[in-house]
Amino acid sequence: MNMDSTVDRLVTGIDPFSHAFLSDPYPHHEAMRAAGPVVWLDHYGIWGMARHQEVRDALTDWQTYCSGAGVGLSDFRKEPPWRPPSIILEADPPLHTRTRAVLTRILSPAAINVLRETFAREAEALVDRLAERREFDGIADLAEAYPLKVFPDAVGISEEGRENLLSYGNMVFNSFGPRNDLFEKAMANAGPVRDWIMSKCSRAALAPDGLGIQIFAAVDSGELTELEAGMLVRSFLSAGIDTTVYGLGNALYCFANYPEQWAVLRENPSLIRLAFEEVLRFEAPVQTFFRTTTKAIEVGGVKLGDGEKVLLFLAAANRDPRRWDKPEIFDVKRRATGHMTFGTGIHGCVGQAVARLESEAVFGALAKRIAAFELTGEPKRRLNNTLRGLDSLPLRVTVA
Predict the structure, then answer these.
(1) Coil, helix or strand for 232?
(2) pTM (2 d.p.)
(3) Cα Dmax for the chain
(4) Which of 55, 80, 334, 350 has the fewest CB within 10 Å, making it most exposed?
(5) Rounded to a whole number, what is the distance in angstroms from the first to the last CA of the chain?
(6) Separation between Cα atoms, residue 396 and residue 400, nearest integer Å
(7) Burial level of 7, CB count in 10 A (0-12/13-18/19+)?
(8) Where are the domains of the chain?
(9) What gap in Å lies between CA 88 and CA 238, rounded to an integer?
C-alpha cells in the first residue's frame, strides 16, 4: 500500500470495498494502523481509522461522530436511502434514546435467560443430527440453520419464507458500502424480499408470546407509535440473523484451522464464552461501520472537517498490537474484552446477548459430541461490503 504524505494528512489509494481487500483485509489493516491514527481514503474521499484507540473514541463520541447521517458510505442528508433509515442503528439521541430503551428492556438479561433452555435444546438436536451424518457444510447446515430456527421463533415470526431473512440481511449490510457489484447483486431481488420483511413487521403477523409483540406493547403504553414499532421489528430481522450466522461460521472455521484450540475448549467447556469473544476479535463478522462528523475535529494532529464520512475499521482495531498482545494468534484462553465487533457506546449492538446465548448453546452442544473438525475441501468466502464470513465450509467431524 502506497502512502503519500501531504501537509496535513496521509493518503492511500486502496479501495476497502474491492474484492481483493475484502478477501484478505489484514495486510491492509496493518498498513493503515502503521500509517497513523487517521488516513485519507482517496478512492472515496473519506477518512479511515484502523487503530483501537481512535475507533473506540469515535464510537463512544456520538456527539462528534453521528449515526443519523447513515452508518454507510451514503450521507442521508445529501441522498435518499434505499429504505427508511433504522430508528435505532441510524439515529442519534433523543430518538435513539427512546427506541433503544424499549429494545434494552425487551432484551434484558432476565428475558434472554428465558430463552436459554429452548436454545440449548434446539442446538443439541441439530448437533445430534449433524454428528450422525459425519460430513456437512458448516455454513448451510449449522451456522445458517440454527439462527434461522431459534431467533425467528423467539421473535414470533412464522416459518414460511424465512430464507428471505438471509437475503434481506445481505441487502442491508452490502448497502453500507458503495453501489458496487456486491450491492447490485444483493439488490437483484429486492422488491419481493423487502415486501416479505415488511409483511412480518405488523402486530397482526407476530405470535402472541414472542419478543416482537412486546415491541407493540410499548405502543400501548405510549412509548412508541405503531409505525415505530414496526420499524423496530424490522431492525430485529435485519440485524439479528446475519451477524450471528457469520459469527458461528467464523468460529467453526477457526476451530477447523486451529484444532489444538478446540481440544483446549473441550477439556474446559467453561471457556466457551471466552472462546466466542476471541472469535469475534480474531475473525470479526462485522468489519466496518461509518460515522459522519458533526463539527471540525483534530485527530492525531490531522484536521477533519464538519460533515465528513469516517470509516471505522472495527476488525483492524481488534488486531491492533497497541491494544492486544500477539493479536495475530487465535487463543481461546485470551480475555478479548474490549473488541470492537459489537461496537461500544450508545450504539453498541443491542442484541449481543442473544448472539452470545446462541453461541454458548451451539458450542456447548458441539463440545459434548464433537472431538475434532476437519476440512474436506476449500472453504468458499462470501464477500460483503460490511461483513466477513463464508459461503461454504465443508467439514468432517470426529464424534466423541
Answers:
(1) helix
(2) 0.95
(3) 63
(4) 80
(5) 46
(6) 13
(7) exposed
(8) 3-399
(9) 12
Q: One-letter amino acid identity for 213?
A: I
Task: Extract the C-alpha cell encoding 210.
Answer: 414472542
All three cell numbers of 304, joined, read 477533519
Cα–Cα distance for residue pair 100/89, rounded to 1 Å:
9
> Residue 293: beta bridge partners?
65
The CA distance from 325 to 373, in Å, is 27
Element counts in the chain: helices (H) and strands (E): 16, 14
Q: Render each residue's pLDDT in the chain as its tens digit; 400 residues.
A: 444 444 367 888 899 999 999 999 999 999 999 999 999 999 999 999 999 999 999 999 999 999 999 999 999 989 888 778 899 999 999 999 999 999 999 999 898 999 999 999 999 999 999 999 999 999 999 999 999 999 999 999 999 999 999 999 999 999 999 999 999 999 998 999 999 999 999 999 999 999 999 999 999 999 999 999 999 999 888 878 999 999 999 999 999 999 999 999 999 999 999 999 999 999 999 999 999 999 999 999 999 999 999 999 999 999 999 999 999 999 999 999 999 999 999 999 888 999 999 999 999 999 999 999 999 999 999 999 999 999 999 999 999 9
Give the three cell numbers for residue 357: 446465548
* C-alpha grid cell, residue 134: 459425519
Dist. CA 303–CA 120, nearest whole Å: 50
Angle formed at CA 322 by CA 317 and CA 326, multiple of 5 degrees: 90
CATH class of 3-399: mainly alpha
